[in-house]
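Hi F.,

I've been meaning to write this up properly since the lab meeting, where we talked about keeping a consistent format for the predictions we share between groups. The idea is simple: the sequence comes first, exactly as it goes in, then the structure tokens exactly as they come out, then a line or two of notes. No screenshots and no reformatting. I'm using this chain as the first example so we have something concrete to point to.
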Amino acid sequence: MNAHADPRFVDTILDWRWTGFIARFALVGAYLLGGVVKATDWPSAVAEQAHFGMAPPALWAALTIAVEIVGPLLILTGRYVWFGAGMLGVFTLLAAFTANAFWSMPVGPERFMATNAFVEHLGLIGGFVLAAMVAEHENRRA
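Output, unedited:
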């Protein structure tokens, strides 16, 4: 066996026809659920935007719902993945700066949690970049 070869079980998982979809769903599922929940509870969606100082909150709620539904659907369907990933990446970056401004908080548990959430958001952005790269690679092979 080649020292750089993947173990057989890894090859089996990576070659399984549903692995890509499941991975994409794991990446975008929380966004899709968030968009649906906000769409079905408009007053809370608007209140959330107001809580974070976004004005006018109704406009930001509508944009958030659109991004959280359209972006995941593009990624899950494999159509315009780059656009869906870009939408979610920009949205996630804006959300990280808006909701997790750890640099403006005093040292303590709240700052600790906000720092972790901020860095996790950066990781999600990396996942969106990778999703777009994989889709582009697959399109070139087709």
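Notes:
The two ends are 30 Å apart (CA to CA).
Helices lie at 8-15, 19-40, 42-51, 57-77, 81-99, 109-141.

If this format works for you, I'll send the rest the same way.

G.
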